[in-house]
Design a protein that fits this description.
heterotrimer, A alpha+beta, B mainly alpha, C alpha+beta, B: 3 helical TM bundles of succinate and fumarate reductases, C: alpha+beta, Ubiquitin-like (UB roll), Fumarate Reductase Iron-sulfur Protein, Chain B, domain 2, five-stranded mixed beta sheet, two-stranded antiparallel sheet, 12% strand
Chain lengths: 636, 222, 248
């Protein structure tokens, strides 16, 4: 049985209790301890900087050419914190409750409460770093409201909050690099984890510029490598986002938790052709004033503006009169898919729905709309060439965020001692559905305020271990393993690109393990993925050499995705209920709403790798609700 | 101060200081030369008197040394900066249309400066050198007759054309140089930078058309 | 659409490169520019040749990784746009498109269109931060900052570090990049304490990296995807001069 090691006691005292009882490392001893941080986004930069400030020897790795490009940069809306600056009744408990309810009661109470409790400190930290959050004219911080909650607790820096928070963390990291406390290895990808005597002791990385494999040893390894939503190929993620680091750690013994829980964001731009590489997200805030509809007639040929009001189906307003166009992400996405699948989709590929501002423009005037969303309308026009003041936008759902990830306990440590997972790379706090503006929060809190304590608790016992010797046989074996895989990929010499397989995998997953899943579909998906994987290892073609070679990078990532995708399907298949982003068509109410099964499925699925070609092994971590009672999420 | 030399910003500061001092000198120079627009007889005597006073004054002498230092400093720094800038991009673009993003004269300050420098050499040789070291006839008041020299030099059409072309070059050089100097020295307030820019335009056009008008006027008088 | 391409190909940092010609048929005008390059690479791969290496990541204009010279302009013919936001409808049928890496001595070419912009990281390392450790921060609202000041700081902080300012500058100056960070921090009360050492160190590092002088041509502002104002450069000069005058 998996033990999350959540401290006993009242909810609000758990974290304080942990902090006051955790072991410490004295400043003189910190110099003797090496820590590796993989990934330099918000979570990675913040932990690397924090540990560097404390005096540990830190090495920080990222695949981008500089940490400032990590995909945290793309988060638009904001970051939640229960400062209660608006005097509207916000509190740690309310934020905790909103988050755990938003996650459809599939997250740990202790973790979620800690997230809410630490949120206020993040705002303080970010402001001190110079993050220019929006302010009121009196000079005090401003908030906006966001989906799924009744208070205004979202701090924002225009539509680029992620960029600004990342810059804060990046600058803190650069300061430590300049001071010599952190060594930065940009353009390095982690290809294996080294485990010695059941403890994480280092990693094997590939220098993506020279192709050289390098061994790096440490007393603890942190994976802060973000989510793997790019597995769907078409997603809102950056092209380079990948699941390789966590997957390779998984193959070395770290469990993967709830890998199939992927948030599909409702307001992204639709795919316009086969060539498409990425779906751009349009901020959720547009749904405050935009109305979503599709034509009543399947074979509608008219331009949207020519379709009269009575021939439009405002399906969100129809199905969810209380929340309407502001229904939570999972519900809005699913409703769109339902209409598109039923043949009512619009656009040349019939894969989108309209997001219409005509009424808002009529009621409030174009100027007001321009003030609120001008940058988004400009972005829309840049990408599509269409002026959305004159005709409705076309939007469609797109893969966005992985709620699942490496299983971690309360200390953010995986099932491999000494291996920590932070931010989107772990499965921690969002349950089965993440609320808007909580992803930046979780990544930062993990890095600034949680891991520095929990890692010290682990590292306190490692002082005696002495320096890690990279000449150890385990390093040699891991390097050999990586070398072999690279040779294998280069050696296939088939005729299909890595992207070809990635697109095929993405389509299987989007159709069968995306917005809605079914037993038959998932079983078919598993056999399709196995077949695709076989084809991959026979027909892949990687041109070029071992030095700079994007195709080789992609091939390694797709190889991992082809295994991870199968696990996602297993995960979805064994969860015979619908919860949050996970919607099994067999488990729905007569009105088509998700039907959760708390009796049998109030647990976290943690999967163990048992070897290539073998079925993964399921471990359950039961969820205990001591302080809240799971209820049915209703937005009607 | 030793550190100043190494930094790009301090080199640009010297460019700005020397450039602005030269601008100031242009004003004084033009103000003096405007006497040439007086009725011929009066202009003749007054201009020669003015030149005589200037050449004898100690303060003016000191200023003239600063002036030469500024010209040399401006040129030397321009060369140092240009060499460093060329080193900052050793491989050129194969196909270059970056010009669409900025004004041509802002990119060609070196070329404009070279034209002005050549002009300066000719100008100094024709007037300053002759006045100082050459043999000039005396006027009725016993002053060296610079006025006569001016009238005879500006009687040549080719010289007038050259002079006007050089003033156009100077005008473009100032159009960019004046506001650029203010920026370099750190004027960042949006309202005032705009005011300086407008002032710079007016300044460049007034100064340069003033200078260009003199040879034209003198030539037409003939 | 039919597109003719001339692309800079270079094996690695040490070998010289050259322009190579390619032709693509049936390009959809709604494709993004980078998707057009994806299509080219797919074609090259089918022919068994090495695809073109180019920098890209988020493909929505915020990460700053993409950046190439397209027809002699940084990030292509549109103003204030990143390469990834450029679409093929901007070009005409049968047009020849010339593609080169950003060039500056401080940005060595690594392979084809990929360049090394780590010089920017080192400029930030030299002082582009507020030295606050995790845990030291006071309550956020204890430092009121006027909305106009914070918006001005944001305008500077919006820099994505793509390097277009250096690429378009005739002198390869990094003044816009460096000054954006200096201005961002100088505009906020939190950033005042280190203002003088920051500006001196950052300018020093910028020079060490081999960037050129700023001659205020203002081309950088025109090409900057975030429309960062050149007035930040003036602000940097002001801060620098102040720091030099007040230096003890």
């Amino acid at each position: 049985m998996l033990d999350a090691k959540i401290p006993a006691g009242p909810l609000e005292e758990k974290w304080n209790y942990y902090k006051t009882h955790a072991k410490l490392v004295n400043p003189a001893n910190r110099r003797k301890l090496d820590v590796i941080v993989v990934g330099a986004g918000l979570a990675g930069s913040s932990i690397a900087a924090s540990l560097g400030e404390m005096g540990y020897n830190v090495k920080c790795f990222c695949f981008q050419d500089t940490p400032r490009r990590a995909h945290s940069v793309a988060a638009q809306g904001g970051v939640n914190a229960c400062k209660n600056y608006k005097n509207d009744g916000d509190s740690v408990y309310r934020m905790f409750y909103d988050t755990i309810k938003g996650g459809d009661f599939r997250a740990r109470e202790g973790n979620v409460y800690r997230l809410a409790a630490c949120s206020a400190s993040l705002i303080d930290q970010a402001v001190a770093q110079g993050v220019p959050f929006g302010r009121e004219y009196g000079g005090y911080l401003n908030n906006r409201s966001f989906g799924g909650v009744q208070v205004s607790r979202t701090f924002y820096a225009r539509g680029q909050t992620g960029q600004q928070l990342l810059q804060g963390a990046y600058q803190a990291l650069m300061r430590q690099v300049g001071a010599g406390n952190v060594q930065l290895f940009a353009r390095h990808e982690m290809l294996d984890l080294v485990v010695i005597e059941k403890k994480a002791r280092g990693i094997i990385v590939r220098n993506m510029d020279t192709g050289a494999l390098e061994r790096h040893g440490a007393h603890a390894v942190v994976l802060a490598t973000g989510g793997f939503g790019k597995i769907y190929y078409l997603s809102t993620l950056a092209m380079g986002c990948n699941g390789s680091a966590i997957w390779r750690a998984h193959k070395r013994g770290a469990f993967m938790a709830n890998p199939s829980w992927t948030q599909i964001h409702p307001t992204s731009l639709p795919q316009s052709g086969e060539y498409q590489s990425k779906l751009t997200l349009m901020s959720e805030s547009l749904r405050n004033d935009g109305r979503i509809w599709v034509p009543v007639n399947k074979d509608e040929q008219r331009e949207p503006n020519q379709i009269p009001e009575e021939e439009r189906d405002y399906y969100l307003e129809r199905r969810y009169p209380a929340f309407g166009n502001l229904s939570p992400r999972d519900i809005a996405s699913r409703a769109a898919k339902e209409r598109i699948d039923a043949g009512f989709g619009i656009g040349p590929l019939k894969n989108a729905v309209y997001l219409d501002f005509s009424r808002a423009i009529k009621d409030q005037g174009e100027d007001k709309i321009r003030k609120k969303y001008g940058n988004l309308f400009r972005m829309y026009e840049k990408i599509t060439g269409v002026n959305a003041y004159l005709e409705p936008m076309r939007i469609s759902p797109a893969a966005h965020f992985s709620m699942g990830g490496l299983w971690v306990d309360y200390e953010l440590m995986t099932t491999i001692p000494g291996l920590f997972a932070l931010g989107e790379a772990n499965f921690a706090d969002h349950g089965a559905n993440r609320l808007g503006a909580n992803s930046l929060l979780q990544a930062s809190i993990d890095g600034y305020f949680i891991a520095p304590y929990t890692m010290a608790n682990y590292l306190a016992d490692e002082i005696k271990a002495g320096p890690i010797d990279v000449r150890h046989a385990a390093f040699a074996a891991a390097e050999e393993n990586v070398q072999q895989q690279l040779h294998l990929l280069m050696g296939i010499q088939g005729n299909l690109s890595a992207d070809h397989f990635h697109k095929a995998l993405g389509k299987i997953l989007y159709d069968k393990c995306g917005l809605s899943r079914s037993k038959d579909g998932l079983e078919k998906a598993i056999s399709d993925i196995v077949a695709l994987r076989e084809e991959f290892w026979q027909r892949l073609y990687v041109p070029g050499g071992y030095a700079i070679n994007s195709e080789l990078e992609k091939a390694g990532r797709v190889a991992d995705y082809l295994e991870l995708g199968e696990l996602m399907c297993y995960d979805a298949l064994t969860r015979n209920e619908s919860c949050g982003a996970h919607f099994r068509t067999e488990y729905q109410t007569p009105e088509g709403e998700a039907m959760r099964n708390d009796q049998d499925f109030s647990f976290i699925s943690a999967w163990e790798w048992t070897g290539a070609g073998k079925s993964p092994l399921l471990h359950k971590e039961p969820l205990h609700f001591e302080f809240v009672t799971p209820t049915v999420r209703s937005y009607k | 101060m030793g550190q100043w030399k190494q930094q790009t910003l301090s080199r640009k500061n010297w460019m700005a200081f020397t450039g602005l001092f030269l601008c100031l000198y242009l004003v004084i120079h033009l103000a003096g030369n405007l006497q040439l627009f007086l009725p011929a007889e009066r202009a003749h005597r007054q201009f020669n008197l003015y030149s005589h006073i200037l050449s004898g004054n100690l303060i003016i002498k000191a200023i003239s040394y600063i002036l030469f230092a500024c010209i040399i400093g401006h040129v030397v720094y321009a060369i140092i900066i240009t060499v460093a800038n060329n080193r900052a991009r050793k491989i050129r673009y194969h196909y270059d249309r970056r010009g669409a993003a900025s004004k041509w004269y802002s990119r060609n300050m070196g070329l404009l400066g070279t034209i002005i420098f050549i002009f300066l050499v000719i100008h100094l040789r024709d007037f300053w050198y002759v006045y100082k070291f050459g043999r000039l006839p005396m006027d009725a008041d016993g002053h060296k007759d610079l006025y006569l020299l001016v009238v005879s030099v500006y009687g040549e059409l080719w010289y007038v054309i050259l002079y006007v072309i050089c003033m156009v070059a100077l005008c473009y050089h100032l159009l960019h140089g004046f506001f650029s100097a203010a920026r370099t020295l750190g004027l960042y307030h949006p309202r005032y930078t705009h005011a300086v820019r407008v002032f710079g335009w007016v300044f460049s056009i007034v100064i340069c058309s003033g200078f260009a008008a003199i040879p034209l006027y003198v030539y037409c008088l003939k | 659409m039919r597109i003719r391409l001339k692309i800079w190909r270079q094996e690695n940092e040490h070998e010289p490169g050259k322009m190579m010609s390619y032709t693509l048929e049936d390009i959809n005008p709604h494709m993004s520019f980078l998707e057009m390059l994806d299509t080219l690479n797919e074609q090259l791969l089918k022919d068994g040749t090495r695809p073109v290496e180019f920098d890209h990541d988020c493909r929505e204009g915020i990460c700053g990784q993409c950046g190439i010279m397209i027809n002699g302009r940084a990030h292509g013919p549109l103003k204030n746009t990143t390469t990834c936001q450029l679409h093929m409808r901007t070009f005409t049928d049968n047009e020849e498109i010339i593609i080169e890496p950003f060039r500056a001595s401080a940005f060595p070419v690594k392979c084809d269109l990929k360049i090394d912009r780590s010089a920017f990281d080192r400029v930030i390392q030299s002082g582009g931060f507020i030295a606050v450790n995790t845990g030291q921060a006071p309550e956020a609202n204890s430092i009121p900052i006027g909305s106009p000041e914070v918006e001005a700081a944001f305008d500077a902080a919006a820099c994505i570090g793509c390097g277009a300012c250096v690429a378009v500058c005739k002198n390869s100056s990094a003044a816009l990049f460096t000054s954006a960070k200096i201005a961002h921090l100088a505009l906020l009360p939190q950033g005042q304490i280190e203002a003088q050492t920051r500006v001196r160190n950052m300018v020093n590092q910028m020079d060490k990296e081999g960037f050129g002088h700023c001659s205020n041509t203002e081309a950088c502002e025109v090409e900057c995807p975030q429309q960062i104002s050149v007035l930040h450069i003036a602000r940097m000069n002001y801060e620098y001069n102040k720091a030099q005058i007040l230096k003890k």
